[in-house]
Structure formats: C-alpha cells, structure tokens
Amino acid sequence: MITAGIDIGSLTGKALILKDTSVLSWSIIPTGYDSADTAKIVTEKALEQAGITMADIDYIVSTGYGRVIVPFARKNISEISCHARGAVWCNPQVRTVVDMGGQDCKSMRCDSRGNVISFAMNDKCSAGVGRYLEVMAKLLDIRLEDIGERSLDFTGDPLTISSTCVVFARSEILRSLQQGADKNKILAGLHDALVTRIYGMLNKVGLEKEFMVSGGIAKNIGIVNRLQRRVGFEFKTAFEPQIVGALGAAVLAQEALLEDAKS
Amino acid sequence: MAIITAGIDVGSLFTKVLLLKDDDILSVDVLPTSEDVSKTVSEVSNKALSDANISINEVDSIASTGIGQNHVPFPAKQFSGVKCSIAGARYYFPLVQGVIDIGAESSKAMKCAANGKIVDFAANDKCAGGAGIFLDTMSLLLQIDADDPKSMDMITEQINITSTCVVFAESEVVTLIHKGMNRFDIWRGINESIAERAFSLAARIRASGKVALIGGIAKNPVFVSCFEKMSGYKLLIPTNAQFVNALGAAIYARESKK
Questions:
Q1: Which residues constitute the domain of residue A257?
Q2: pTM
Q3: Of A154, B16, B22, B199, which one is least surrounded by beta carbons within 10 A?
Q4: Quick check: A26 and A14 in contact, CB under 8 A?
C-alpha cells in the first residue's frame, strides 16, 4: 500500500510518500505563484526520489492552506487533523502538538490514535507566529538561523518588550537599539515573548505528555529550550519538523484506502 | 481681559500646537515628532507663537495631552486624550454625542452626555490593525496622497483586504500590486479595513446620533466614505480635525485659569 501526503503551505510545499510503515521519500520546495503547479512539482520530486511513478500511488491526500487546489488528490483534510496524525505516527506517545510556521500557529491535544480532542489556532496576528521573529531578525540584521542560538548566549535579564503588536514592538526595539541595547539581550526578550504566547495557547488546549514541536519553529533552539523550561517536561521533535503535516496526510490516506476496501 | 492659552498634543507621529484667545483660534501648527520630543515641542510652539504674532509671555496658561504629554519643556498641566477630544469636538459641535479619534498608534471611540461628561469609551492601542500608522505606510507604498479629494473618482472595483494584522496585510497588498490591480482599489480596501476596526470600537460603546470624526484621518475622503457607508453615521468633521485634541487641551488650560 503506497500513499502520498501533500501539504501546500503559504511558504513551502511538501510531499511525502509512505509505503506501509516506512517513509519512502519526501521533498520540500518553496510555494510558487501557482499552487497547483507547486503541488505537481513537489510530488514529482518525491516520486523520483522514491523511484516510483504516480501510477504506483494508491491514494493521495492533500492538506495545508492550498489543499483544495491540488488537482490529483482524492481527498483534502485540514492541517489540524494531519499534524496530530503525523506527530502520533512519529512518536506514538505524543498527546500534545505545537506546530508553528511563518504564518500561523496551531496547538492540538489528541488521543493515542492521533484524533484531535481540542485545538487552538492563530493565523490572525503576526505577533504569535514565526513571522514575528522573521521581522525582528531583519531589523537586527541577524540571520534567522542564528537568532535562537544567540538568544541563549545572553544570560542576564532579557529585555522587556511591552508591546504585543509587531509594528509597535518594532519601534520599541528600534529605540532600544538606538540607546545601545545588546542585540542578544533583545533577542532573549523576543524569544521570551513568543514563548509566553505559545504557552498561553497550550494552556487553552490542555497540556499533556508527550509533547511535540513541529513546523519551522522546531529548528529554533532558543524557542525549543525556553518552551521546554516553561512547560516543565522534555519534548520530542519529528525527524523532519516541516514534514509532519504531509506525513499525517499520507497516514490518513492509508486509513481512507482501508475504509474504501471495507465498503 | 482676554485669556490666551496654548494646547499641545504630542502624538507618536506628529506634535500639534494650538493657540486660543478666549473663543478664537489664533494659530495652529504641526511638525513630525522627532527623537528629541522636547525640542519638537519647542519648535512647533515657537512657530505657533510667531504665526499668531505674540510672545510666550502673553500666554496665560499651557496644557498638554497625547502620548508624549510629559515631554513639554515648560510648565503645563496635563489632560487625558479622551477629555481633550470631547472638549475639542464640543467646541465645533456643541450637541455632539460621540467622538471617534484615530491616531497613529491608537484609536478611540467616546460617548458623552449633553453636558460633555464622558459616558463610555473604548480604545485600541494594542494592535496596529486599527491605527492610522498603517494608512501612512500604505499611502507611501501606493504613492497615493491620503488627503487627495480626487482619489474617490479613481476607484473602479471593490477589493477586500482579508488580513487583520498589518504585517500580513502588507504582504497581501504587495501581492495585489504584483497582480496589477488598480492601486486606488487597493487603497479603498485598506481604508475599509481600518474603518471596520474603528467602527467595531464605536459599536462596542453603541455610539449613535451626532458622531464626530477627529484626527488627521478625517481629511482622507476614502476613509470617511468607507466609514460612513458601514456605520450609517453622517460624520461631523471639524475644520481643524488634526488639532482637536490640542484645542481641547487649550480649553482646559483656559478653564484652569478662570
């Protein structure tokens, strides 16, 4: 049984090919102007890596922001369901998942099968998503890949940022910079602020062991470390944090296929 | 003996000064608020004094308001923005029942009784989504003069901006520009989204009847038309809309002198 999960996000398109219980291949590409095109290209790349063709795939499920425009998908399923399924597939003990990308943040609590029990989502305010750090990294002129590490280099009291809104926080930080504030101290404050918002969201859905972080934010050690301290228990990241949604879609494709076979 | 007072409104983007002689406005002046706020206040005040052709010694009393109200380099009493907005709006419209003030970084909706007492108010200074600063950035990006009365005629079709957050809206606008949409249609969509947020404040306090719009935004015809259409208000707009808070401060300075 070979299935594919395709996750078309606002910034990247992901495809993953699953054969029974093993992941054959996956690919990640930037989302282009045309989402349908992106879906096609990213799937072809994954197929090529797996050494198979479209005809070998039994069932395709699409997910993500652009899920309705994937022309060859049999079914589309919300990214909330897919992320929870994918996380539990990676680590069957997982019960709480945070997925944060550039444009949104989701947190879900799920059961042992990866069915969602409760969830919260923010895609309205950029102060609670990865974009917050992107804007600030640009302002501080530090590469996005480096900010997490540098925020941990600072050991004193982090800068207190009183504004929530990215626009207002930006001017606040600009003033601090002009007054000669240490960039790492600012970064520590920014990471603290974002972790506080993630933590608030987690409390809304209820926090349960095991815990997984996925999405681009899982690659930021500054966030992962602080969140771990705040939550009070260790957590897992997926083998590839950006692919969890596509993986969940492929797992749900397997289930749909079995369901079809039964009826 | 006539009383001359000065009202100073130190906003996050602009500093406004108004000189009042009894019931007559002598002069109004405005400059962008710089890093050195006290210096900006001195500069605008000097301009206003020279426009009115009087010296600082002739000013009987000074009051300040706005976010930088305590950065005034001369003795001045301080009054809240809400009080000043209502007092200033009542100068123009004695029967006003509600006032909407949209500043660069905050928006307020206020309701007052017939005697000018504040009955209720709602404010947003947490999210740039409903604030004037977004319009400033967008008018630069789209190269549209916000106060141009002709911009209304350039609108061809309805475009909606779906993002609430300014950061997301900015990318949305860039995408629309790349798609080759008419920039005046995009501009209308932006104004509508700000108007929507402002109206939600007004609706929260159930402002109705005679409602005034103050702040620099009142000169923007696209915003006014969007706001009136969605709210059903026939907005009262004072001639010196940008200086209403400074006027309110000057009125309070005068009262404290009586």
A1: 1-78+242-263
A2: 0.84
A3: B22
A4: yes
